[in-house]
């Protein structure tokens, strides 16, 4: 929570620094924005080992952002921001021959069983990032602003846990020793990549001279998990839609 | 999201699920592990050089030689099962045992199980290789990263009464993963029967399947052992039990009437099932004095009459069980308890 406090402080300082400039000309504007995200850490196309997604819960994934825009042409500009955001979800899936590792909480990777699991897999993801988005903006004559660009995120803290239940695992290979599993947990929190970067597009719609609503869709080009992570044999990428409301300082 | 679900992939598994032989031929249901199939057959009712067992395998998998083709089972026959997707194959060693199990066990012959790299003893009866001993080692191999035969709870030792080897059982810790599933220790155990490794974590008492066919009436169980208790017993949470007690070993034999509904006993009923006809058990399993072996001579105490016709028709089974921790089946024991066993005999009528 100290982080959120710090962010508030940062927003305040930014606002103070920019307000004078913003008042002198209309080229620079400053805004603050709050929103919530819906999305997933998902493979490109669901692998064949996932037979059915029994449930999906996006949860509440807040985002807070402070940014500034610079208009270098009548209709074009650049925007940059500092964003604190959480990306997460919960899923419950039925899997068949799903390659995974079952380890003890806070694993050091040694006390683990790796193999092909058939049964149900529950996944809980909640990663917090400090993100720097950079956009090219297009300001139309109507109330829309279109944005396209990229983002770089730094992982602040991570949770990637879950359990395998009501099934069995084959040790190491699909023909390895079979072991029935009632419920066994896994924790890959330590294996989430520190840096997450990708592309982002979005649109703002002006409600008044001060207020706007916005939607951003971002897709991470870097995998969610660190290089060398083999406990799940498909790559996962963050893909999230963030919906929010903003306040523009003039 | 279900719209993105891909068509089900071809099966990767390659299991023998079932082996079938005419009922009159089988003395006891086949025991199937991940890489072996073993069945006692009535040798007077078949030509062992041309037996054609039927096999049920994982859906879509293919078995070679094909199910139902005659094979010479004078020695174990190797079958290869290839998965439906064609990428995985598993080799099984299928044994039809036509000789009666031995009455003397010297623990001279040991083989390394390829699945887990651990030792298991076997018996040689007129050159027939009988895989009649089982242990919980395969469960241990799953839960701990250890891969050396000497790291397992059940192994061999050269500290023997006679011959080169004896059986050596030691209660081991199972590490963090074992503690999480409420199995902080693994006792060394060795028994006549088979181990259903799939149940090792979910129903460990049912994983130990006790008993092999036996057609003589046992009177006494004799042999040599030495035991070093590992000290105070801990429970399945790893805490000392109250009241505190010292770990003990267990040595017993159970003679029981098998039935089609209950062909084997398991860890939950081996001493208590109504089918039990007789039990021979070590009275007290504390540490043995001195460093040497001690003889044991245990009398079978009969609870019910033995039917001679059923006995001759292999209607009875016998199980001999050794454990380095007496309550090890429920994960109570002391790490470091060591049991040595050698030169065991079943004295029959």
Structure description:
The complex is a heterodimer of chains A (250) and B (349). In chain A, 9% of the residues lie in helices and 64% in strands. Chain A has 250 residues and is mainly β. Chain A has one domain: Porin (Beta Barrel). In chain A, strands 1-3-4-5-6-9-10-11 form an 8-stranded antiparallel β-barrel. In chain A, strand 3 (62-71) and strand 4 form a beta hairpin. The two termini of chain A are 29 Å apart. The model of chain A is unreliable at 20-24 and 105-110 (pLDDT under 50). In chain B, the strands form 7 sheets. In chain B, strands 13, 18, 19, 20, 22, 23, 24, 26 and 27 form a 9-stranded antiparallel β-sheet that branches. In chain B, strands 8, 14, 15, 21, 25 and 28 form a 6-stranded antiparallel β-sheet that branches. Chain B has a 5-stranded mixed β-sheet with strand order 2-3-7-6-5, with no helix packed on it. The mean pLDDT of chain B is 92. In chain B, strand 2 and strand 3 form a beta hairpin. By secondary structure, chain B is mainly beta. Chain B has 4 helices and 28 strands. Chain B has helices spanning 137-143, 175-180, 204-207, 308-312; strands spanning 16-20, 31-32, 36-40, 54-57, 62-64, 77-82, 89-97, 104-105, 110-113, 118-121, 123-125, 128-130, 133-134, 154-157, 166-170, 172-173, 185-186, 189-195, 208-210, 212-213, 218-228, 250-257, 265-266, 276-281, 294-299, 301-302, 316-323, 338-348. Chain B has 2 domains: 9-98, Immunoglobulin-like (Sandwich), CATH 2.60.40; 99-348, BT2081, beta-jelly-roll domain (Jelly Rolls, Sandwich). Chains A and B meet through strand 2, strand 4, strand 5, strand 7 and strand 8 of A and helix 1 and helix 2 of B.
């Amino acid at each position: 929570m100290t982080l959120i406090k710090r962010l508030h402080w940062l927003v305040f300082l930014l606002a103070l620094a920019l307000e004078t400039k913003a008042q002198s000309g209309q080229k620079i504007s400053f805004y603050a924005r709050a929103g919530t995200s819906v999305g997933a850490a998902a493979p490109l196309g669901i692998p064949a080992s996932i037979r059915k997604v029994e449930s999906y819960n996006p949860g509440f994934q807040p985002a807070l952002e402070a940014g500034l825009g610079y208009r270098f042409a009548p209709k074009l500009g650049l925007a940059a921001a500092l964003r604190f955001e959480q990306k997460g979800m919960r899923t419950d899936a039925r899997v068949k021959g799903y390659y995974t590792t079952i380890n003890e909480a806070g694993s050091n990777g040694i006390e683990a069983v790796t193999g092909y699991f058939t049964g149900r897999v529950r996944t809980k993801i909640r990663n917090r990032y400090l993100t720097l988005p950079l956009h090219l903006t297009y300001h139309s004559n109507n109330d829309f602003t279109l944005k396209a660009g990229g983002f770089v995120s730094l992982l602040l803290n991570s949770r990637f846990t879950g359990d395998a239940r009501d099934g069995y695992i084959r040790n190491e290979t699909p023909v390895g020793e079979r072991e029935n599993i009632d419920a066994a947990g896994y924790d890959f929190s330590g294996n989430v990549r520190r840096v997450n970067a990708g592309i982002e597009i979005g649109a703002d719609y002006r409600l008044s001279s001060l207020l706007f609503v916005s939607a951003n869709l971002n897709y991470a080009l870097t995998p969610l998990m660190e290089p060398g992570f083999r406990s799940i044999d498909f790559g996962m990428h963050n893909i999230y839609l963030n919906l929010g409301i903003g306040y523009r300082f003039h | 999201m279900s719209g993105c679900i891909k068509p089900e992939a071809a099966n990767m598994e390659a299991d023998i699920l079932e082996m079938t032989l005419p009922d009159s031929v089988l003395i006891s249901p086949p025991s199937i592990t991940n890489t072996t199939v073993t069945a006692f057959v009535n040798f007077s009712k078949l030509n062992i050089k041309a037996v054609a067992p039927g096999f049920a395998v994982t859906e879509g998998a293919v078995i070679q030689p094909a199910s139902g083709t005659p094979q010479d089972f004078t020695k174990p026959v190797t079958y290869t099962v290839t998965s439906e997707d064609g990428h995985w194959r598993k080799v099984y060693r299928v044994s039809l045992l036509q000789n009666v199990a031995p009455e003397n066990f010297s623990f001279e012959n040991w083989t390394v199980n390829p699945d887990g790299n651990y030792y298991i003893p076997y018996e040689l009866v007129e050159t027939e290789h009988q895989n009649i001993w089982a242990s919980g080692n395969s469960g241990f191999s799953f839960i701990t990263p250890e891969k050396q035969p000497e790291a397992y709870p059940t192994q061999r030792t050269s500290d023997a009464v006679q011959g080169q080897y004896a059986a050596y059982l030691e209660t081991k810790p199972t590490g963090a993963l074992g503690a999480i599933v409420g199995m902080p220790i693994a006792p060394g155990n060795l028994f006549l029967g088979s181990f259903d490794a799939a149940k090792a974590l979910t129903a460990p008492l049912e994983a130990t399947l006790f008993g092999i066919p036996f057609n003589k009436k046992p009177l006494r169980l004799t042999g040599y052992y030495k035991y070093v208790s590992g000290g105070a017993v801990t429970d399945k949470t790893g805490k000392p039990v109250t009241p505190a007690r010292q770990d003990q070993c267990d040595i017993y034999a159970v003679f029981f009437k098998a039935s089609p509904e209950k062909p084997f006993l398991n860890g939950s009923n081996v001493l208590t099932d109504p089918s039990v006809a007789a039990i021979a058990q070590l009275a007290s399993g504390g540490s043995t004095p001195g460093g040497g072996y001690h003889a044991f001579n245990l009398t079978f105490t009969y609870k019910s009459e033995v039917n001679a016709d059923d006995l001759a028709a292999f209607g009875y089974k016998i199980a001999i069980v050794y454990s380095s921790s007496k309550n090890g089946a429920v994960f109570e024991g002391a790490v470091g308890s060591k049991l040595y066993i050698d030169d065991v005999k079943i004295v029959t009528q």
